[in-house]
Amino acid sequence: MKVLIVGANGQIGKHLVSFIQNHDDLEARAMIRNQEQAFFFENLGAETVVVDLEQDIEPIAKAAEGVDAIVFTAGSGGHTGKDKTIMVDLDGAVKTIEAAKQAGVKRFIMISSFDTRREAIQAAPPSFAPYVAAKHYADEWLKSTELDYTIIHPGALTNEKGTGQVEVAFEVGRNEIPREDVASVIVACLENEKTISKEFQVVTGTKGIKDAIDSL
Question: Reduced to 3 states, what is the DSSP secondary structure of residue 76?
Fold first, then answer.
């Protein structure tokens, strides 16, 4: 299975490409914003495509040609303004969904925020609410399509080494999770068709990742 990783140069994306390139049945195509980011991925033997997510749909669709799945891990980051939140976390996500349809790619995995329900938008601090709203509407857009989607809602992200142990369910208690473990969860979802049309929260827990995903 060839997988296009959108946002490959992010921290989750880099872990994910590394895991995929070490997987017997998966192959990565890393979508990056500029050529200077290519060295890391070429070192792993991964194909790269240079596309700015703020471009129109067509370049993204071209990048998706010939792949079997798309993983959207892109994010504007915590230090950008509301404009970037709209352009990347909402518009970038929606354009990628539309690009998947144009390119005939059915499988789509979305890395979202921990809680994107309407209540979470209302409860969020003013500085964070636009991000939650952007993620909410991107998730809703994906669920309205006929794509084979999975939406992953990770807890507070850390750069700790992955434990390989998680808790997953439609709703779990708030907790942290290493980015490395989120990448492993994505791989497990790519391996398991039972995750199609599923949406779940994931945090550090006590169950092995494969078993946790199998239990969904």
Answer: coil
